[in-house]
Amino acid sequence: MKHNFGAGPCILPQEVFKQASYGVLDFNDTGLSILEISHRAPEFVAVMDEAIALVKELLNVPAGYSVIFLQGGASLQFAMLAYNLLPEGKKASYINTGVWSTKAIEEARLFGEIDVIASSKDKNFSYIPKDYTVAADSTYLHFTSNNTIFGTEFHTFPDAKNHLVCDMSSDIFSKEINVADFDLIYAGAQKNIGPAGATLVIVKDEILGKTGRAIPSMLDYQKQISAESMYNTPPVFSVYVSMLNLRWLKAKGGVDAIEKENIAKAKSLYTEIDRNPLFKGTTAVEDRSMMSVCFVMENPELEKPFLKYAEEKGCIGIKGHRSVGGFRASLYNALPITSVHVLVEAMQEFQEKN
Ligand code: PMP
Asked: What is its EC number (predicted)?
């Protein structure tokens, strides 16, 4: 049995994989594959509608917000959001907490003045900056809620009087959020939503159409909203499996229920990291991510042997990103707590042997 701690694309529930495979062979008893029907067919329109309805229900999206599925990954959103939100000659604020925020900043600079009001680069992005002020003339404040590579997470969101824009690629649907606090939320699908290929965007309608820019249709949120995520052919399979996965989450009791499980999973692993003298965490304790647990060994020479030992126990995908080293265990929604227990046992056994 494999325990998949990979950072993304990553584990999805086994039952979702099974249902997805049925859909590939015979979608809803149509005698056709989900891959061969028209995206304009009522059967697929129903899939898109249900996926969007589930996002709204699971996150309690209030009236006045639109939910769309796009393509291009979270990386395209780095540019698209600035294109749509930042008027010529205006300024936006960014908090830099890692690789993904840095990329978001670089892309946004193509569209206006970007004020990096806080950064944790001085300590290899191992903490969440807490001391900053957002300039009154800033159009929005952008941050990355979970830093997939460095293993830090905002446990309290910045206060920017509603003008918050957030990359939630690696922690959306892992915990309860108040969508009304945000102007825009975006996330690549391939962690807690579904397979790679779709990108979820939740945007407050009233902030759109104010830049005075002419925006190419594919990059224009308003056009994508009025076309109901079907301006062009959507990533049908990714949307379909995302819908199945959101159904799974709803059946489990929704975000509130999964949050409790996620807290228990993270607690179990961090407790072992802190207890076991061979290991240590890499981030400020108060900013530790519940989704991306980064840790190293006191003796770096033991890292390769531990990686091998953990792999023998079925724990895969735990090699850390090269910018942090050591290990990263991603504890996304679909990862059962039993998998975390297997990793913790491997750490304990490895300690006994070393
Ligand atoms: N933001 C975050 C927080 C991520 O973790 C990732 C991918 N791991 C990205 C953005 C980039 O996403 P994509 O590959 O969908 O462009």
From this structure: 2.6.1.52
